[in-house]
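Protein in question kept underneath.
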Amino acid sequence: MDLSFPDVTGLDVFDAACEYAANGIAVAPFDPSKGKGKSCWNLVDYRDITTSRSQLVRWRNSYGPFKALATSPGQYGAIVIDVDRPRSTPRHLRKPLATGVYVNTRPEESPNRGHYWFELPEVVRLGNPTLPFGEVRCVGGGIVMPPYGDRRIVRSGPLPALPEALTTYLGTQGSQAGAGEPVQHSGITFGQFCRKYAGNERPHKLQALLKLHQVILDRGTSPHDAMRQVLLTGLGEARIGYVPAKKVVHALRDTWDRDRAEFTRLVQWTINAVEASDAEKLKLKSDRCPGTDSREYA
């Protein structure tokens, strides 16, 4: 089925959900009163989004009238470029972005701030890397859909193919950001990882890790990507015996106000990545490279 973004202006939330579903855009309800309107998966998981009207009806019967909708574009072959800082968008990307289906998310701030929708090429797989001017929302990512707040559908219709200029740019940025790309499964569970890496040679690094997390968030990084970065640092330092893995995860979990299932997925992804890394390089990075780990925040 070809993907098309319908104009749902004026529809109530449930009718909008049905219209999205009829056009191949799988959606799910969420409760915006939980998590400051950003926890897209506080009723169902992102993998449960649907184009089935009967499933939408069952959710309405279970949760009551829909308050808001979310989708995860990468689940059905779409990608969304979330532009938060239009003035920082590279000039050579502005025309390609303007070819996409477009939802203006902050019309009071800028006519160019919002979600730019495209069809994802089959050969491209992306997670949710942070960009200098915004974020990508693809595999595992969440997007809040109209009708919600001040969101305005500016351009609706069939999703165009991702322009070559954006494909090239995102390929480069994705490799730099390391955000959400597949890693080989290590076969190690969270419990096994914690038992394996329980050393505590430098306990002060735990508090430094929390400071690092706040610094990353203060830079404007999304909560998802900030947590991914700090988990990589913390569990990397656990692997070399500096802090207990269990304490790292528990301390960071206490700062997470989003979907717990998302946090669990981040932890497992990080375990796989850390297990595949070079322990000597982790040690060199932690000991000698301030700014790339928790050292300077101790």
